[in-house]
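tokens incoming
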């Protein structure tokens, strides 16, 4: 029997790579739905190629039926499909907070989840992981670090974990002198040395907010106290993360930096699939290096660690929302690179730390935080 799959965000970096993997295994998968925000032309092509039952555009009006594919409009349609269709696994590959609802709805229904969207766990970590437990669903991380940790923890006793160490490439500015950070341009920030990804996560990698979001993601996915989590810079991005145990053993997962490896793992877990990624050639791989994070350069990561340490999710929601707003303004040339931090910090300080477990309250705080972040931007602009 084929595995029935729905993809939220099929036209993005993760979505298209997932379809590349699925294309290698047409006998194993059936596409129930594909969805995008507005890149309808690509989605239609994908829908035809994979004989999708439905294609859904969340942001661009369009309702029709052709080539035997039902075409739907609106984000609610994506949610309804997850709630009602016969689906085995949903891949959440949309960006930002828009991942919260589809992930939560899939978890509540007990549909298996391949989760690329880290922002949903940052904003609604306990809500989602508790729903997954309740319905005995499975949540398989797609984020390369978390896929690595997930694999290192298979068959292990969680009580014997000493540390979970997330690796970070350090992004494009690892070697850039700190005194030139005020002059970082958008083009420079969009050039990631190792990974080719969507714009938002590429900027998050340059500020290292991405690693901050990932620490929070790891806390919830693996139910870890923040003291068990650590980050190390590993410029080659070959070791995707490591776990150390009480006996002094370290387990690590290695591979070339290519998302098709964790994507393929998430699609067929616990089985493995040929992903199209070539194996590491250790004879030509000369060095693997590691270094500490310079928090002067990566203030966003430091802020995220502080938010992680206080434990509750209200500040995580505020931080995530402010980061999305700040990155959006930066990408529109309305904010400097260093001001991304200022917006997040100026927003987070306006909220108090508490635990929010109601989905509506999570949405309300997200909206409110975005408004606050926009006010902070205005203030910064006025100087
Ligand atoms: P992209 O920006 O490349 O793609 C985002 C996808 O989501 C597109 O298909 C986009 O459609 C769709 N989308 C955006 N907003 C909405 C919405 N409101 N409703 C429905 N669909 C929407 O992002 P990435 O693929 O890079 O990243 C996706 C997620 O995966 C992020 O959370 C990121 O942090 C995470 N991730 C990504 C990695 C990577 O290598 N790219 C690595 C690890 C994690 P459209 O094309 O129409 O805009
Ligand atoms: Mg990652």
């Amino acid at each position: 029997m084929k595995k029935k799959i729905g993809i939220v965000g099929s036209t993005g970096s993760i979505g298209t790579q997932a379809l590349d993997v699925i294309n290698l295994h047409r006998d194993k998968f059936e596409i129930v739905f594909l969805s995008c925000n507005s890149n309808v032309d690509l989605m239609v092509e994908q829908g035809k190629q994979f004989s999708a039952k439905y294609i859904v555009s969340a942001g661009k009006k369009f309702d029709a039926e052709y080539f035997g594919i039902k075409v739907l409009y609106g984000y609610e349609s994506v949610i309804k499909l997850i709630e009602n269709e016969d689906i085995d696994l949903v891949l959440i590959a949309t960006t930002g907070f828009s991942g919260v609802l589809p992930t939560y709805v899939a978890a509540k229904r007990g549909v298996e989840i391949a989760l690329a969207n880290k922002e949903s766990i940052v904003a609604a970590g306990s809500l989602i992981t508790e729903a997954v437990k309740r319905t005995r669903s499975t949540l398989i991380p797609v984020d390369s670090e978390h896929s690595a940790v997930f694999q290192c923890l298979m068959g292990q006793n969680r009580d014997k974990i000493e540390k979970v160490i997330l690796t970070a490439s350090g992004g494009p500015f690892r070697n850039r002198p700190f005194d030139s950070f005020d002059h970082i341009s958008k083009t420079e920030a969009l050039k990631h040395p190792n990974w080719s990804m969507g714009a938002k996560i590429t900027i998050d990698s340059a500020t290292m907010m991405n690693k901050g979001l990932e620490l929070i993601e790891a806390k919830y996915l693996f139910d870890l106290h923040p003291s068990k989590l650590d980050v190390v810079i590993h410029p080659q991005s070959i070791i995707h993360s490591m776990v150390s145990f009480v006996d002094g053993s370290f387990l690590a997962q290695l591979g070339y930096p290519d998302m098709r490896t964790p994507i393929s793992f998430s699609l067929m877990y616990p089985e493995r699939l040929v992903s199209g990624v070539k194996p590491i050639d250790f004879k030509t791989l000369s060095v693997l290096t590691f270094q500490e994070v310079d928090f002067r350069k990566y203030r966003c990561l430091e802020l995220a660690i502080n938010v992680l340490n206080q434990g509750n999710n209200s500040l995580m929601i505020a931080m995530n929302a402010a980061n999305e707003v700040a990155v959006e303004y930066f990408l529109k040339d309305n904010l400097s690179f260093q001001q991304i931090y200022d917006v997040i910090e100026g927003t987070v300080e306006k909220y108090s730390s508490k635990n929010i477990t109601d989905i509506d309250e999570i949405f309300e705080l997200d909206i409110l935080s975005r408004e606050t972040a926009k006010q902070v931007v205005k203030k910064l602009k006025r100087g």
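note: The first helix runs from residue 13 to 23.
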